[in-house]
Amino acid sequence: MKKILLVYNPVSGHAAFKNRLDTVIENFQRRGIFLSVYRTCANDNSSFVDCVKISQAEGILAAGGDGTLHAVINWLKKFSIDLPVGIIGSGTSNDFATHLELDDEKIFDAVVSGKTRPADLGLVNGKEYFINVASAGVFTSIAHEVDSRLKNFLGKSAYYLRGLGELKNLKTVTLDITADGKNFSVEAFLFLILNSPSVAGFKKISDAAKIDDGKLDLLALKKCSVSALITSAKKILAGECIDSDENIFSLQAKTFEINSSAELTSDLDGEAGDSLPLKVDTFKHAINFFC
Fold first, then answer.
1. Annotated catalytic, 271?
2. CATH C-level class of 128-286
3. Is the CATH number 3.40.50.10330 carried by domain 2-114?
4. 3-state SS, one letter per residue, for the chain
5. Cβ atoms of 252 and 170 closer than 8 Å
6. What sign results for the dihedral spanned by CA atoms 101, 69, 285, 136?
7. Contact 249, 188 (CB under 8 A)
8. Interhelix angle for 104-113 vs 21-30, to 10°?
């Protein structure tokens, strides 16, 4: 039997995955897959690497949201573990799983077949990887500022409520950007560095962003009037790509350096990251996903 280590976050997405655990195990077992289970902890996950070794896992299955996937990828990279990763999206936000169009049946079959596809990773300041998006500015820190109990109770509505509270802080900052050695300066509300085009629950906000092209895509929402800001927001809500929006500054590069005179803390896949300045490098095909 193929051996897979299931890593699940007990508090992701209404803390509901535990109610699906038996069904997941049964579906894999029926397909000839033996699952070992690792339950993530809030503070200390040092035993993860031992579980990978003891289980003799041939792949990792991450059950949770984008933050859980972020943690799993960083654990794998920290300990130089080269195993394919599968995703069961069960968190408040599941942007990367959404991009891969994974549901339960698809992931069961993908793991059984062993079919994978490569994906790039971004590395921030030489120490922390992200799989989906790195960002900073207005609204971008909401994911890790919302209380976990509120997220479990209200789901994505908690993000929107927290976002309304950010409106009073709506102000721009000057971003100094170096992209593959070229320098730019832009006055903006926020910036996103995308690996996938799925962000904040929206399936596709960029035509350019691809997870396996060896490049990352920077989108910055430029200083503009409130009415122009609402127009751009409507496009996003309607599912339109905003690469060519007149209020968006966009760049594609392998390496970014970003600084600002304002104090900004980054967000990496919904988790708190370093304060600016940031140096972001792309690692092409750094990980494989069951897909």
1. yes
2. mainly beta
3. yes
4. CEEEEEEECCCCHHHCHHHCHHHHHHHHHHCCEEEEEEECCCCCCCCHHHHHHHHCCCCEEEEECHHHHHHHHHHHHHCCCCCCEEEEECCCCCHHHHHHCCCHHHHHHHHHHCCEEEEEEEEECCCEEECCEEEEECCCCHHHHCCHHHHHHHCHHHHHHHHHHHHHHCCCEEEEEEECCEEEEEEEEEEEEECCCCECCECCCCCCCCCCCCCEEEEEEECCCHHHHHHHHHHHHCCCCCCCCCCEEEEEECEEEEEECCCCEEEECCEEEEECCEEEEEEEEEEEEEC
5. no
6. positive
7. yes
8. 40
At 198, list the tokens: 């799925």
Q: Which amino acid is at 76?
A: L
Q: What is the pLDDT of residues 228-267, one digit of tens each?
A: 877 877 777 666 788 888 999 999 999 999 999 899 999 9
Please name which of 121, 33, 112, 104 lies closest in space to residue 69, comparing C-alpha atoms: 121
Cα separation of 253 and 272, whole Å?
23
Q: Which residues are within 8 A (CB) of 46 and not within 5 positions of it... i.e. 6 or more apart? A: none
Q: Residue ranges of the domains in the chain? A: 2-114, 128-286
Count of residues in the chain = 291
Q: Cα-flanking dihedrals φ and ψ of residue 209, to 5°?
A: -70, 125
Q: Note the pLDDT of residue 2.
A: 93
| pTM of the predicted model as reported, rounded to 2 decimal places | 0.87
Give yes or no for a contact between 242 and 219, defined as CB atoms under 8 angstroms apart: yes
Token output for 195 = 């690996």
